[in-house]
Amino acid sequence: MEGASAPAAARALLAWWDAAGVDIADAVRAADAAPVPRPGPAPRAHAPAPADDALASAREAAATATSLSELAEAIAAFEGCALKKTARTTVFSDGAEDAQVMLIGEAPGKDEDQQGKPFVGRSGQLLDRMLASIGLDRRHNLFISNLIFWRPPGNRPPTQGEIAACLPFVERAIALKRPKLAILAGGVSAQSLLRRNEGVTKLRGRRFALENPSFTMPVNAMVMLHPAYLLRQPQQKRLAWADLLALEAWLDELGVARGPRL
Ligand code: URA
After folding, report:
1. Exposed / middle / buried, residue 251 (Cβ in 10 Å: 0-12, 13-18, 19+)
2. DSSP 3-state assignment of 127?
3. What confidence category does residue 262 fall into, taking pLDDT thresholds of 50, 70 and 90?
4. How many CB atoms lie within 10 A of CB 257?
5. Distance from Cα 7 to the centre of ligand 1, integer Å
């Protein structure tokens, strides 16, 4: 944390792990005992790309939205992504629409599908605690969305076709919001928006610029490990901590006002 002495930073880290429900002794034992699996690129189910007319209608519907609420309506009305048939709700966004920071996760899970909001389940709760440590809070200064707007059955990874169908809407959301910084949570969101093939371990913590013909200027972007991955691999939280410090440093440089670090 900026300006924190080493013991204070260590205490903050331990408190954060504790709040996240991590048994620290267990995590240390596990880290000592086992080779650490790397969060490589998420496996992708193979499925045909969406029909050209679905892509064209996604692009057209996204381009005609002139506000986030019009975009939310356009997404809810879109029939070109098969996931909509099995999902209960469309999950677009949560948080402060005027925030200077936007986070883009992967896809809704069961809780999000029930509540119609992104990141409201266990990984969302961990995400909230992580981001609170750098002064970001969806109630005040953070806007949250996903790469995919409908829950994939059984939480399987989205297919390339499903990603392609949703991408015009995600990029339109970024164009309308023009955040000072976009945080890409997890490898699927990072690879799709940055159009890069490296795994999340290679992409995390680096400074990127998202480019798109519909953006008036490139958008700053940084990748962080996905909180769901951290719930499965708690010993990797030291990498997540490094991601948060890298985000905090960039937010400070960009002059993004934030709340107290909790
Ligand atoms: N994981 C995500 O990537 N997004 C959500 O909304 C929930 C879990």
Report:
1. buried
2. helix
3. confident
4. 9
5. 33
Interval 47-55 mean pLDDT: 73
Which domains occur in the chain, in start order? 49-254 (3.40.470.10)
CB count within 10 Å of CB 97 equals 11
Helix locations, 133-186, DSSP H: 160-177
Q: What is the pLDDT of residue 54?
A: 86
By DSSP bridging, strand 143-146 and strand 93-95 are: antiparallel
CA of residue 124 to ligand 1 center, whole Å:
7
Q: Closest Cα to residue 81, out of 101, 57, 103?
A: 57
Candidates 106, 142, 184: which one to mutate for ligand 1, based on the most atoms within 8 Å of Cβ?
106
User: Tell me: the pLDDT tens digits for 85-106?
Assistant: 999 999 999 999 999 999 999 9
pLDDT for 17 beyond 90: no
Contact between residue 161 and residue 122 where contact means Cβ atoms under 8 Å apart: no
- The CA distance from 143 to 96, in Å, is 5
- 112 CB within 6 A, ligand 1: yes
Residues 6+ apart with CB under 8 A from 140: 96, 99, 259
CA 116 to each of CA 7, 89, 111, 112, 190: distance values in angstroms, whole numbers, following the listed order: 41, 6, 8, 5, 23
| C-beta of residue 183 within 8 angstroms of C-beta of residue 222 | yes
Scan for tokens 């005609």, then name that residue: 64
Q: In this predicted structure, what is the pLDDT of residue 39?
A: 55
User: Which secondary-structure segment (H or E) carries 146?
Assistant: strand 143-146
User: What global pTM score does this model have?
Assistant: 0.84
